[in-house]
Amino acid sequence: MVGSDVVEVERRLRAGELGCPCGGGLSPWGHARPRSVRGVGVVRPRRARCGSCLVTHVLLAVSCLLRRADGVDVIGAALRAKASGAGHRPIAQRLQRPVSTVRGWLRAFAGNADKIRAAFTGLLVELDPLTGWLPPHPSVFADAVEVVGACAAAARRRLGVVGAVSPWQLAAAVTGGCLLAAGLSRVSINTSRPLGGAV
Ligand SMILES: [Zn+2]
Fold it and tell me: What separation, in Å, do the N-terminal and C-terminal C-alpha atoms of the chain show?
């Protein structure tokens, strides 16, 4: 996951500042196919190759999630609305997205909510050891939404550098774009580098 500033990503890639999970360094390796992301625009993700393991990676901007046609902030708005009690139909209407699409986001997030709540609660304590317990909500879904927001606020307080990164972009970075992925595992949630490539 990289920032959504294309020029900055290119600079970091060329300067050898982006690393492969194996520990090797990434260098430019062409581009992935352009795709249109609603709420973001047409993106043409950069590809990079690791000098050690030779695996190529697509650098996904934190404004996007894997295999989702909408930007993460639009999806996040739907998740927040659901957490405050809205149903999928009114949410779809307000965001002008198909009902089935919105229902898909909500179901996918619900399926990952306990893992997200656990991982982000851990991250929250790391970012701000003095943070109090968040008040529990009637659903794990709402708990998970709340703790994502709390992490973003704590990151902003602690680091003062994530002003340009929304809570949902932070969530995209921490989950490697897999916030709504069926295979989201504890392992793929990268809280050891809480901001991933977000900044
Ligand atoms: Zn590698």
Answer: 10
